[in-house]
């Protein structure tokens, strides 16, 4: 089984690009996906956020499931980068599929701070979509 971790934030467009990547992989019958939404620690004090409360996460999970791929849905809270890397380790993810931010000019070569932190914090392959 080829295990993918798809961490999503609130941005539906980025999440859609992540789902498009996953559903375009060959041999999807051998793919298992975990869609993860991490509420940043500073926001988690306002109360527990359930997976079903995050529209972008629900849409990604549904899009991937519609392609016949098994999906686990996970909501967590804490330091976003740390939780992503720890969760990838916990499920022994073959890839981490992150959504990229669109930037212009020189900023194009830069990725978002979470994506950059994840890339530097893991030895697992990281795919940036979008």
Sum up the structure in keywords.
single chain, about 130 residues, alpha/beta, Rossmann fold, five-stranded parallel beta sheet, 5 strands, globular, Universal stress protein, Rossmann-like_a/b/a_fold, Universal_stress_UspA, UspA
CA-based shape: globular
Low-confidence stretches: 105-110
Q: Write down the secondary-structure element order.
A: EHEHHEHEHE
Total count of domains: 1
Distance between the amino and carboxyl termini: 25 Å
According to DSSP, the number of beta strands is 5
Task: Return the CATH architecture.
Answer: 3-Layer(aba) Sandwich
Query: What is the CATH topology classification name?
Result: Rossmann fold
Which CATH top level class fits? Alpha Beta
The helix content, as a percent range, equals 25-40%
Major beta sheet, strand line-up:
3-2-1-4-5
Per DSSP, the total helix count is 5
- Sheet of most strands: 5 strands, parallel
Rg to the nearest angstrom? 14 Å
The CATH superfamily is identified as: HUPs
- Write down the overall mean pLDDT: 89
Q: What structural class do the secondary elements suggest?
A: alpha/beta
Percentage beta strand: 25-35%
Describe this structure in words.
- This protein has 130 residues and is of the alpha/beta class.
- It has one domain: HUPs (Rossmann fold, 3-Layer(aba) Sandwich), CATH 3.40.50.
- Helices cover 38% and strands 26% of the residues.
- The protein contains five helices and five strands.
- The protein has a five-stranded parallel β-sheet, with helices on both faces.
- α1 (12-23) runs parallel beside α3 (55-66) and α4 (80-91) crosses α5 (113-121).
- Mean pLDDT is 89; it is low at 105-110.
């Amino acid at each position: 089984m080829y295990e993918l971790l798809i961490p999503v934030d609130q941005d539906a467009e980025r999440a859609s690009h992540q789902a498009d990547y996953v559903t375009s992989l060959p041999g999807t019958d051998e793919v298992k996906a975990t869609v993860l939404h991490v509420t940043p620690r500073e926001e988690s004090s306002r109360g527990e956020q359930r997976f079903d409360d995050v529209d972008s996460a629900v849409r990604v999970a549904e899009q991937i499931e519609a392609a016949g791929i098994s999906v686990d849905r996970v909501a967590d809270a804490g330091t976003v980068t740390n939780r992503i890397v720890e969760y990838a380790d916990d499920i022994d993810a073959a890839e981490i599929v992150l959504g990229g931010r669109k930037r212009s000019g020189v900023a194009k070569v830069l990725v978002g701070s979470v994506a950059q932190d994840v890339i530097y914090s893991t030895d697992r392959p990281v795919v940036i979509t979008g």
